[in-house]
């Protein structure tokens, strides 16, 4: 049975608001909007303008939409400037580079009609505060957020407002955006898979890149039995071309994989059959400066991006607010 039926009809809308203390080369405030993990809008404090990042949103929303987003983003920027200052005070910090983030959004399954929503705050890439939608209350995982959670939980009107937004308005927006960009958002791009190893004492890495949509399953087997130990799965991250990449590491001794059958299996909705790559001397690439396609052909662009410029690209995207952490924003100051 294929594991990815659950991904076929699921869509998501997410916003990342990121504030960074002044003194770096990056904007002090950014907003990134994602539909199905594909960026469709962007705002930063340097330009003070919200801009489209996909053709489908550009073709379907006009000046009023972008003016609305720009005005709201300027206002949110001031709120987040206060938020990061308050967080620094609570953590007894007076200088240095610090980040405060908020992530919020919703998901919708267009087959079952099921929906969900979330709101989360983070400081320095760690959980700070989140909204429990089911129980309509804020939960503080760190002591420094207790005061905020207590105050917000005593504002029933605001709690209800967020519930209405996450369960209704956000879902309506998501459905609209999916209708705009269905041909793009529901495209399928198959992954390229490579095995990498720096030296005989390093883990064997199964590098999977160039796939869309984001959902992917990477597993290891020994003699056709799934392995759970000595396995480390990396995060799924974006490539420059709008596709995604991920890595899974297996710590195994050369004498073991030479004497037994080890494989990396990749499952993705674009594939009619799973990709199964045996761990063999021929398949392992020990030159980490270049990646290869196991069939012997030239490296695809997705692999080149993932191996050569992936780290730099992901760092820049992270600073822009997409994957520094995972949180959301409304406009309330602490």
TrEMBL record:
GO terms for biological process: immune response. GO terms for cellular component: external side of plasma membrane; extracellular space. The keyword Membrane applies. Pfam families: C1-set, MHC_I. The keyword Metal-binding does not apply. The chain crosses the membrane at residues 301-325. Keywords: Glycoprotein, Immunoglobulin domain, Membrane, Transmembrane, Transmembrane helix. Residues 191-276 form the Ig-like domain. Belongs to the MHC class I family. PANTHER family: MHC CLASS I ANTIGEN TRANSCRIPT VARIANT 1-RELATED (PTHR16675:SF237), MHC CLASS I-RELATED (PTHR16675). This is Ig-like domain-containing protein.
């Amino acid at each position: 049975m294929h594991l990815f039926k659950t991904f076929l009809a699921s869509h998501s809308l997410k916003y990342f608001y990121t504030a960074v203390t002044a003194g770096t080369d990056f904007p002090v405030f950014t907003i990134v909007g994602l539909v199905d993990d594909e960026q469709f809008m962007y705002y930063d404090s340097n330009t003070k303008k919200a801009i489209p990042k996909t053709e489908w949103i550009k073709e379907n929303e006009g000046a009023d939409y972008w003016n609305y987003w720009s005005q709201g983003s300027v206002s949110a920027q001031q709120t987040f400037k206060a938020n990061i200052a308050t967080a620094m005070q609570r953590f007894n910090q007076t200088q240095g580079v610090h980040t405060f983030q908020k992530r919020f959004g919703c998901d919708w399954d267009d087959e079952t009609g099921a929906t969900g929503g979330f709101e989360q705050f983070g400081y320095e890439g760690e959980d700070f505060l989140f909204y429990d939608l089911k129980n309509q209350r804020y939960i503080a995982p760190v002591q420094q957020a207790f005061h905020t959670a207590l105050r917000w939980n005593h504002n029933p009107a605001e709690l209800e407002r967020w519930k209405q937004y996450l369960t209704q308005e956000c879902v309506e927006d998501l459905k609209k955006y999916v209708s705009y960009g269905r041909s793009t958002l529901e495209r399928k791009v198959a992954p390229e898979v490579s095995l990498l190893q720096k030296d005989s004492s390093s883990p064997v890495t199964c590098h999977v890149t160039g796939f869309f949509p984001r959902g992917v399953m990477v597993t290891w087997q020994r003699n056709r039995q799934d392995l759970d130990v000595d396995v480390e799965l990396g995060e799924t991250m974006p490539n420059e071309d709008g596709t995604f990449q991920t890595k899974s590491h297996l710590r195994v001794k050369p004498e073991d994989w030479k004497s037994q059958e080890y494989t990396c299996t990749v499952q993705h909705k674009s594939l009619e059959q799973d990709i199964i790559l045996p761990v063999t001397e021929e398949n392992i690439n020990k030159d980490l400066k270049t990646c290869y396609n196991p069939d012997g052909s030239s490296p695809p662009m997705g692999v080149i991006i993932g191996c050569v410029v992936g780290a730099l690209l992901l760092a820049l995207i992270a600073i822009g607010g997409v994957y520094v952490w995972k949180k959301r924003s409304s406009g309330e100051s602490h």
